[in-house]
Hints:
Number of strands: 11
Amino acid sequence: xCLKVSLLVLALVVGLGLSQNLLVNGxxxxxxxxxxxxxxxxxxxxxxxxxxxxxxDPDYEAWVYQYDNPGWTRLSQMIEVLSxxxxxxxxxxxxxxxxxxxxxxxxxxxxxxxNSNNILLGETRYYYSTYANWTPTPTLNLYRIxxxxxxxxxxxxxxxxxxxxxxxxxxSVAKVEVALWSYTFSG
Length: 187
């Protein structure tokens, strides 16, 4: 049995610069139903919560959790963009518990790239997992997190696509989705 997986995220900014947030409720100061889409799949316990207790500061953070296997919990938001000339900034605390090489949890932060018809073109995935066996492809770039404690991250989407996702045509990117994803694989 795989045990719990959780992902905590503080402020999340998708914009032309650090001062402009293109997300609705990207700071989680309102209820998660404002701007965010919750989905889950599989068995076990699924939760997405927001609170001020996850990091020692007065701001809200979101917590995505999936317990037992197999399954996932996801909190996401998709925005239309004029170009991939954007930056994503986020602070995250990644956690996992339990698992094995055949039944493993992963805490992820995803940035997905879509065309105007909502067809997935590619994905960038920040993840923390002891056992995950994901491998990069021309449309999937992976950043394995080795320090699960609170850290700040920034992604230049245009550079990411040009440098690390040769299977994604940057001119076709019309939408960007960010997601907190708690995942448990059972083989």
